[in-house]
Amino acid sequence: MRRLDQLLSSLGYCSRSEARGWVKAGAVTVGGEEADDAGARVRPADVRVDGEPLDHPDGLLLLLHKPLGLVCSHDGREGPAVYSLLPERWRRRNPVVTSIGRLDKETSGLLLLTDQSPLVHRLTSPKHKVPKLYRATLDRDLSAELVTLFAAGTLLLDGEKAPCAPAELRIVAPREAELVLTEGKYHQVRRMFAATCGATVLTLHREQFGDLTLGDLAPGAWRELPLDIFNH
Ligand code: URA
Question: Under CATH, which architecture does the 2-53 domain have?
Answer without folding.
Answer: Roll (3.10)
